[in-house]
Design a protein that fits this description.
This protein is mostly helical. The chain has one domain (2-293). The protein is built from 16 helices and two strands. Helix 2 (49-64) packs antiparallel against helix 3, helix 6 (164-186) packs parallel to helix 13 and helix 13 (309-328) runs antiparallel to helix 14. It is globular, with a radius of gyration of 21 Å.
Protein backbone atom coordinates (compact mmCIF):
# COMPACT_ATOMS: atom_id res chain seq x y z
CA UNK A 1 0.00 0.00 0.00
CA UNK A 2 2.87 2.40 0.76
CA UNK A 3 4.16 2.08 -2.81
CA UNK A 4 0.73 2.99 -4.19
CA UNK A 5 0.36 5.98 -1.88
CA UNK A 6 3.83 7.24 -2.79
CA UNK A 7 2.98 6.99 -6.49
CA UNK A 8 -0.25 8.90 -5.93
CA UNK A 9 1.62 11.64 -4.06
CA UNK A 10 4.14 11.91 -6.90
CA UNK A 11 1.35 12.28 -9.49
CA UNK A 12 -0.38 14.86 -7.29
CA UNK A 13 2.80 16.87 -6.68
CA UNK A 14 3.83 17.02 -10.35
CA UNK A 15 0.34 18.08 -11.43
CA UNK A 16 0.14 20.67 -8.64
CA UNK A 17 3.51 22.20 -9.53
CA UNK A 18 3.02 22.23 -13.31
CA UNK A 19 -0.53 23.67 -13.28
CA UNK A 20 0.46 27.31 -12.47
CA UNK A 21 3.10 27.18 -15.23
CA UNK A 22 0.53 25.90 -17.74
CA UNK A 23 -1.85 28.65 -16.66
CA UNK A 24 0.75 31.28 -17.43
CA UNK A 25 1.42 29.73 -20.83
CA UNK A 26 -2.32 29.69 -21.60
CA UNK A 27 -2.60 33.36 -20.66
CA UNK A 28 0.44 34.27 -22.74
CA UNK A 29 -0.93 32.43 -25.78
CA UNK A 30 -4.49 33.67 -25.13
CA UNK A 31 -5.84 30.12 -25.06
CA UNK A 32 -8.91 30.99 -23.00
CA UNK A 33 -12.43 29.67 -22.69
CA UNK A 34 -14.68 32.62 -23.60
CA UNK A 35 -17.92 33.36 -21.78
CA UNK A 36 -20.62 31.76 -23.93
CA UNK A 37 -24.35 31.47 -23.51
CA UNK A 38 -24.16 27.91 -22.17
CA UNK A 39 -21.33 28.60 -19.70
CA UNK A 40 -21.56 29.43 -16.01
CA UNK A 41 -18.18 31.14 -15.60
CA UNK A 42 -18.14 34.94 -15.87
CA UNK A 43 -14.58 35.69 -17.07
CA UNK A 44 -12.43 34.10 -19.82
CA UNK A 45 -10.38 31.33 -18.21
CA UNK A 46 -7.23 29.46 -19.33
CA UNK A 47 -8.10 25.98 -20.60
CA UNK A 48 -4.93 24.00 -21.20
CA UNK A 49 -5.02 22.25 -17.83
CA UNK A 50 -4.81 18.90 -19.57
CA UNK A 51 -1.10 19.55 -20.14
CA UNK A 52 -0.51 19.65 -16.38
CA UNK A 53 -2.59 16.51 -15.89
CA UNK A 54 -0.64 14.71 -18.62
CA UNK A 55 2.62 15.78 -16.97
CA UNK A 56 1.52 14.31 -13.65
CA UNK A 57 0.38 11.07 -15.24
CA UNK A 58 3.46 10.51 -17.41
CA UNK A 59 5.81 11.61 -14.64
CA UNK A 60 4.29 9.11 -12.22
CA UNK A 61 4.44 6.29 -14.77
CA UNK A 62 8.05 6.98 -15.66
CA UNK A 63 9.07 7.09 -12.00
CA UNK A 64 7.13 3.88 -11.34
CA UNK A 65 9.28 2.19 -13.96
CA UNK A 66 12.32 2.73 -11.74
CA UNK A 67 10.75 1.07 -8.69
CA UNK A 68 11.06 -2.70 -8.16
CA UNK A 69 7.40 -2.89 -7.06
CA UNK A 70 5.97 -1.63 -10.37
CA UNK A 71 8.79 -2.24 -12.86
CA UNK A 72 7.47 -5.74 -13.64
CA UNK A 73 4.56 -4.22 -15.58
CA UNK A 74 6.78 -2.45 -18.10
CA UNK A 75 7.63 -5.62 -19.97
CA UNK A 76 3.94 -5.77 -20.94
CA UNK A 77 2.90 -3.73 -24.02
CA UNK A 78 -0.25 -2.68 -22.17
CA UNK A 79 1.68 -0.10 -20.17
CA UNK A 80 3.18 1.50 -23.25
CA UNK A 81 -0.17 1.37 -25.03
CA UNK A 82 -1.67 3.40 -22.18
CA UNK A 83 1.25 5.86 -22.08
CA UNK A 84 1.28 6.57 -25.81
CA UNK A 85 -2.52 6.56 -25.96
CA UNK A 86 -2.65 9.14 -23.16
CA UNK A 87 -0.11 11.30 -24.95
CA UNK A 88 -2.03 11.06 -28.24
CA UNK A 89 -5.45 11.88 -26.74
CA UNK A 90 -3.97 14.84 -24.85
CA UNK A 91 -2.38 16.20 -28.04
CA UNK A 92 -5.74 15.84 -29.82
CA UNK A 93 -7.38 17.71 -26.95
CA UNK A 94 -4.77 20.47 -27.00
CA UNK A 95 -5.35 21.00 -30.72
CA UNK A 96 -9.09 21.15 -30.06
CA UNK A 97 -8.61 23.59 -27.17
CA UNK A 98 -6.62 25.91 -29.43
CA UNK A 99 -8.37 25.54 -32.79
CA UNK A 100 -11.85 24.22 -31.81
CA UNK A 101 -12.05 21.15 -34.06
CA UNK A 102 -15.25 19.93 -35.69
CA UNK A 103 -16.97 17.19 -33.69
CA UNK A 104 -16.48 14.59 -36.42
CA UNK A 105 -12.74 15.35 -36.62
CA UNK A 106 -12.39 14.94 -32.86
CA UNK A 107 -14.47 11.76 -32.85
CA UNK A 108 -12.39 10.29 -35.69
CA UNK A 109 -9.22 11.00 -33.73
CA UNK A 110 -10.67 9.35 -30.63
CA UNK A 111 -11.56 6.23 -32.61
CA UNK A 112 -8.07 5.98 -34.14
CA UNK A 113 -6.36 6.41 -30.77
CA UNK A 114 -8.67 3.87 -29.11
CA UNK A 115 -8.02 1.40 -31.93
CA UNK A 116 -4.27 1.82 -31.47
CA UNK A 117 -4.58 1.14 -27.75
CA UNK A 118 -6.68 -1.97 -28.39
CA UNK A 119 -4.28 -3.17 -31.07
CA UNK A 120 -1.39 -2.89 -28.60
CA UNK A 121 -3.04 -5.18 -26.06
CA UNK A 122 -5.51 -3.30 -23.85
CA UNK A 123 -8.61 -5.23 -24.87
CA UNK A 124 -11.81 -6.61 -23.48
CA UNK A 125 -11.20 -10.34 -23.87
CA UNK A 126 -13.62 -12.01 -21.45
CA UNK A 127 -16.19 -11.20 -18.83
CA UNK A 128 -15.98 -12.84 -15.39
CA UNK A 129 -19.67 -13.76 -15.56
CA UNK A 130 -20.58 -17.32 -16.62
CA UNK A 131 -17.19 -17.61 -18.36
CA UNK A 132 -18.30 -15.41 -21.26
CA UNK A 133 -15.66 -14.65 -23.89
CA UNK A 134 -15.58 -12.45 -26.98
CA UNK A 135 -15.44 -14.77 -30.01
CA UNK A 136 -12.78 -13.01 -32.11
CA UNK A 137 -9.94 -10.51 -31.91
CA UNK A 138 -11.76 -8.20 -34.31
CA UNK A 139 -14.82 -8.17 -32.08
CA UNK A 140 -12.64 -7.61 -29.01
CA UNK A 141 -11.02 -4.56 -30.60
CA UNK A 142 -14.41 -3.21 -31.69
CA UNK A 143 -15.90 -3.52 -28.19
CA UNK A 144 -12.78 -1.98 -26.64
CA UNK A 145 -12.85 0.99 -29.01
CA UNK A 146 -16.53 1.53 -28.23
CA UNK A 147 -15.91 1.51 -24.46
CA UNK A 148 -12.95 3.90 -24.68
CA UNK A 149 -14.71 6.38 -26.98
CA UNK A 150 -17.91 6.39 -24.92
CA UNK A 151 -16.00 6.89 -21.65
CA UNK A 152 -13.84 9.62 -23.18
CA UNK A 153 -16.89 11.60 -24.27
CA UNK A 154 -18.82 10.90 -21.06
CA UNK A 155 -16.21 12.72 -18.97
CA UNK A 156 -16.07 15.47 -21.57
CA UNK A 157 -19.85 15.95 -21.39
CA UNK A 158 -19.90 16.24 -17.59
CA UNK A 159 -17.09 18.83 -17.55
CA UNK A 160 -19.38 21.82 -17.12
CA UNK A 161 -18.72 23.20 -13.63
CA UNK A 162 -15.49 24.05 -11.82
CA UNK A 163 -13.99 20.88 -10.38
CA UNK A 164 -16.87 18.63 -11.44
CA UNK A 165 -15.16 16.28 -13.92
CA UNK A 166 -11.93 16.07 -11.88
CA UNK A 167 -13.82 15.37 -8.64
CA UNK A 168 -16.14 12.72 -10.05
CA UNK A 169 -13.23 10.99 -11.81
CA UNK A 170 -11.19 11.12 -8.59
CA UNK A 171 -14.02 9.41 -6.69
CA UNK A 172 -14.52 6.77 -9.36
CA UNK A 173 -10.81 6.03 -9.76
CA UNK A 174 -10.39 5.90 -5.98
CA UNK A 175 -13.22 3.40 -5.68
CA UNK A 176 -11.75 1.24 -8.41
CA UNK A 177 -8.32 1.40 -6.78
CA UNK A 178 -9.80 0.16 -3.50
CA UNK A 179 -11.67 -2.58 -5.34
CA UNK A 180 -8.57 -3.73 -7.26
CA UNK A 181 -6.42 -3.78 -4.12
CA UNK A 182 -9.01 -5.62 -2.03
CA UNK A 183 -9.56 -8.15 -4.80
CA UNK A 184 -5.85 -8.99 -4.87
CA UNK A 185 -5.88 -9.58 -1.13
CA UNK A 186 -9.09 -11.59 -1.42
CA UNK A 187 -7.52 -13.96 -3.95
CA UNK A 188 -4.38 -14.39 -1.76
CA UNK A 189 -2.06 -13.26 -4.54
CA UNK A 190 1.69 -13.57 -3.91
CA UNK A 191 2.20 -9.91 -4.86
CA UNK A 192 -0.14 -7.01 -4.21
CA UNK A 193 1.16 -5.16 -7.27
CA UNK A 194 -1.65 -4.54 -9.78
CA UNK A 195 -1.49 -2.56 -13.02
CA UNK A 196 -5.16 -1.56 -12.69
CA UNK A 197 -4.59 -0.35 -9.12
CA UNK A 198 -1.52 1.55 -10.26
CA UNK A 199 -3.54 3.36 -12.93
CA UNK A 200 -6.24 4.13 -10.37
CA UNK A 201 -3.96 5.72 -7.79
CA UNK A 202 -2.17 7.79 -10.45
CA UNK A 203 -5.52 9.15 -11.71
CA UNK A 204 -6.47 9.98 -8.12
CA UNK A 205 -3.21 11.88 -7.64
CA UNK A 206 -3.55 13.77 -10.92
CA UNK A 207 -7.14 14.83 -10.18
CA UNK A 208 -6.29 15.85 -6.62
CA UNK A 209 -3.32 17.95 -7.74
CA UNK A 210 -5.38 19.67 -10.42
CA UNK A 211 -8.41 20.34 -8.18
CA UNK A 212 -6.36 22.79 -6.10
CA UNK A 213 -6.57 25.18 -9.07
CA UNK A 214 -9.80 23.94 -10.64
CA UNK A 215 -12.30 24.01 -7.77
CA UNK A 216 -14.66 26.99 -7.80
CA UNK A 217 -13.64 29.68 -8.53
CA UNK A 218 -11.39 27.91 -11.05
CA UNK A 219 -8.10 29.50 -12.04
CA UNK A 220 -7.75 27.12 -14.97
CA UNK A 221 -9.93 24.63 -16.85
CA UNK A 222 -8.78 21.17 -17.89
CA UNK A 223 -10.18 21.69 -21.40
CA UNK A 224 -10.83 18.84 -23.79
CA UNK A 225 -7.19 17.81 -23.39
CA UNK A 226 -7.84 17.03 -19.72
CA UNK A 227 -11.36 15.63 -19.90
CA UNK A 228 -10.52 13.26 -22.76
CA UNK A 229 -7.33 12.19 -20.97
CA UNK A 230 -9.31 11.31 -17.84
CA UNK A 231 -11.96 9.46 -19.83
CA UNK A 232 -9.40 7.41 -21.75
CA UNK A 233 -7.22 6.45 -18.79
CA UNK A 234 -10.24 5.60 -16.64
CA UNK A 235 -11.69 3.33 -19.31
CA UNK A 236 -8.32 1.62 -19.76
CA UNK A 237 -8.20 1.00 -16.01
CA UNK A 238 -11.59 -0.72 -16.22
CA UNK A 239 -10.59 -2.77 -19.25
CA UNK A 240 -7.30 -3.94 -17.72
CA UNK A 241 -8.98 -5.51 -14.70
CA UNK A 242 -12.03 -6.87 -16.54
CA UNK A 243 -11.52 -10.49 -17.44
CA UNK A 244 -8.53 -10.97 -15.15
CA UNK A 245 -10.61 -12.50 -12.37
CA UNK A 246 -11.64 -16.14 -12.45
CA UNK A 247 -14.84 -16.69 -10.45
CA UNK A 248 -13.72 -20.23 -9.60
CA UNK A 249 -10.67 -18.88 -7.81
CA UNK A 250 -12.93 -16.97 -5.44
CA UNK A 251 -15.40 -19.74 -4.75
CA UNK A 252 -19.14 -19.88 -5.34
CA UNK A 253 -19.86 -17.51 -2.46
CA UNK A 254 -17.71 -14.86 -4.12
CA UNK A 255 -19.48 -14.90 -7.48
CA UNK A 256 -20.80 -11.36 -7.15
CA UNK A 257 -17.38 -9.83 -6.34
CA UNK A 258 -16.07 -11.57 -9.43
CA UNK A 259 -18.76 -9.85 -11.49
CA UNK A 260 -17.95 -6.39 -10.17
CA UNK A 261 -15.33 -5.65 -12.90
CA UNK A 262 -18.33 -5.38 -15.23
CA UNK A 263 -20.68 -3.66 -12.78
CA UNK A 264 -18.30 -1.25 -11.05
CA UNK A 265 -17.27 0.78 -14.13
CA UNK A 266 -20.95 1.35 -14.87
CA UNK A 267 -21.61 2.28 -11.26
CA UNK A 268 -18.74 4.71 -10.67
CA UNK A 269 -19.27 6.43 -14.03
CA UNK A 270 -23.07 6.35 -13.94
CA UNK A 271 -23.41 10.15 -13.64
CA UNK A 272 -21.25 10.97 -16.71
CA UNK A 273 -22.83 8.10 -18.68
CA UNK A 274 -26.35 9.14 -17.71
CA UNK A 275 -25.64 12.77 -18.55
CA UNK A 276 -24.21 11.82 -21.94
CA UNK A 277 -27.07 9.48 -22.86
CA UNK A 278 -29.67 12.08 -21.89
CA UNK A 279 -27.84 14.76 -23.88
CA UNK A 280 -27.55 12.60 -27.00
CA UNK A 281 -31.22 11.59 -26.89
CA UNK A 282 -32.30 15.17 -26.23
CA UNK A 283 -30.29 16.61 -29.13
CA UNK A 284 -31.15 13.88 -31.65
CA UNK A 285 -34.85 14.28 -30.86
CA UNK A 286 -34.48 17.94 -31.88
CA UNK A 287 -32.68 17.05 -35.08
CA UNK A 288 -29.40 18.45 -33.75
CA UNK A 289 -25.89 17.04 -33.64
CA UNK A 290 -25.34 14.87 -30.52
CA UNK A 291 -22.30 17.06 -29.80
CA UNK A 292 -24.16 20.39 -29.96
CA UNK A 293 -23.72 22.10 -26.55
CA UNK A 294 -26.71 23.16 -24.45
CA UNK A 295 -27.61 24.14 -20.88
CA UNK A 296 -29.62 21.06 -19.88
CA UNK A 297 -26.94 18.83 -18.38
CA UNK A 298 -27.41 17.43 -14.87
CA UNK A 299 -25.28 20.17 -13.34
CA UNK A 300 -27.28 22.85 -15.15
CA UNK A 301 -30.48 21.35 -13.72
CA UNK A 302 -29.05 21.54 -10.20
CA UNK A 303 -28.24 25.20 -10.77
CA UNK A 304 -31.78 25.83 -12.00
CA UNK A 305 -33.12 24.16 -8.85
CA UNK A 306 -31.38 26.90 -6.88
CA UNK A 307 -28.08 25.34 -5.82
CA UNK A 308 -25.00 27.53 -5.86
CA UNK A 309 -22.07 26.60 -8.08
CA UNK A 310 -20.17 24.88 -5.27
CA UNK A 311 -23.22 23.15 -3.83
CA UNK A 312 -24.17 21.72 -7.22
CA UNK A 313 -20.67 20.25 -7.55
CA UNK A 314 -20.70 18.87 -4.01
CA UNK A 315 -24.13 17.29 -4.52
CA UNK A 316 -22.83 15.44 -7.58
CA UNK A 317 -19.72 14.45 -5.60
CA UNK A 318 -22.00 12.99 -2.93
CA UNK A 319 -24.00 10.96 -5.42
CA UNK A 320 -20.82 9.69 -7.10
CA UNK A 321 -19.31 8.72 -3.75
CA UNK A 322 -22.47 6.93 -2.62
CA UNK A 323 -22.82 4.90 -5.84
CA UNK A 324 -19.11 4.00 -5.81
CA UNK A 325 -19.27 2.98 -2.14
CA UNK A 326 -22.32 0.87 -2.84
CA UNK A 327 -20.56 -0.96 -5.67
CA UNK A 328 -17.31 -1.62 -3.79
CA UNK A 329 -19.15 -2.75 -0.65
CA UNK A 330 -20.23 -5.92 -2.49
CA UNK A 331 -16.78 -7.26 -1.64
CA UNK A 332 -17.43 -7.11 2.10
CA UNK A 333 -21.10 -6.60 2.99
CA UNK A 334 -23.84 -9.19 3.20
CA UNK A 335 -26.95 -8.77 1.00
CA UNK A 336 -28.83 -7.34 3.99
CA UNK A 337 -26.05 -4.87 4.72
CA UNK A 338 -25.94 -3.88 1.07
CA UNK A 339 -29.70 -3.29 1.06
CA UNK A 340 -29.53 -1.15 4.20
CA UNK A 341 -26.64 0.86 2.76
CA UNK A 342 -28.52 1.40 -0.50
CA UNK A 343 -31.70 2.56 1.21
CA UNK A 344 -30.02 4.71 3.86
CA UNK A 345 -27.50 6.27 1.51
CA UNK A 346 -30.09 6.91 -1.19
CA UNK A 347 -32.39 8.70 1.24
CA UNK A 348 -29.49 10.77 2.59
CA UNK A 349 -28.37 11.82 -0.89
CA UNK A 350 -31.93 12.75 -1.84
CA UNK A 351 -32.39 14.85 1.29
CA UNK A 352 -29.08 16.65 0.77
CA UNK A 353 -30.04 17.35 -2.85
CA UNK A 354 -33.28 19.11 -1.92
CA UNK A 355 -32.73 20.29 1.66
CA UNK A 356 -30.67 23.38 0.88
CA UNK A 357 -32.70 24.82 -1.99
CA UNK A 358 -33.27 28.57 -1.56
CA UNK A 359 -36.99 28.21 -2.23
CA UNK A 360 -37.45 25.69 0.57
CA UNK A 361 -35.41 27.83 2.97
CA UNK A 362 -37.40 30.93 2.09
CA UNK A 363 -40.72 29.13 2.66
CA UNK A 364 -39.48 27.78 5.98
CA UNK A 365 -38.27 31.09 7.34
CA UNK A 366 -41.31 32.96 6.04
CA UNK A 367 -43.45 30.60 8.13
CA UNK A 368 -41.21 30.57 11.20
CA UNK A 369 -40.34 34.24 11.58
CA UNK A 370 -38.06 37.05 10.38
CA UNK A 371 -34.90 36.16 8.53
CA UNK A 372 -32.18 38.77 8.03
CA UNK A 373 -31.90 39.88 4.40
CA UNK A 374 -28.12 39.74 4.26
CA UNK A 375 -28.13 36.15 5.53
CA UNK A 376 -30.79 35.15 3.03
CA UNK A 377 -28.59 36.41 0.20
CA UNK A 378 -25.49 34.65 1.47
CA UNK A 379 -24.52 31.32 -0.08
CA UNK A 380 -24.27 28.29 2.12
CA UNK A 381 -20.78 27.58 0.85
Amino acid sequence: MKAYLLLGVIACAITFLVTPLVRRISLALHVLTPVRGRDVHTVPTPRLGGIAMLSGLLGAFLIARQTPYFSQFYSDPQVWALIFGSLAIAVLGIIDDIYDLNWWTKLSGQVLIAAGIAWQGIQIVSFPIFGMTIPSTRMSILVTVLIIVVSTNAVNFVDGLDGLAAGITLIGAGAFFVYSYLLIRLTNAQSYASFAAMIGIVIVGVCLGFLTSNFHPAKIFMGDSGSMLLGLTTSCMFIVVTGQTDPASLGRSQFLPAAIPVLLPIAVMILPFLDMVMAVIRRLSRGQSPFKPDRQHLHHRLLKMGHSHRRAVLVMYLWAFFISLLAVSFLKLSPLGELLLACGGGVLCFLVTIAFLPGLRSDYFAASGPYPHHQRQKEDL
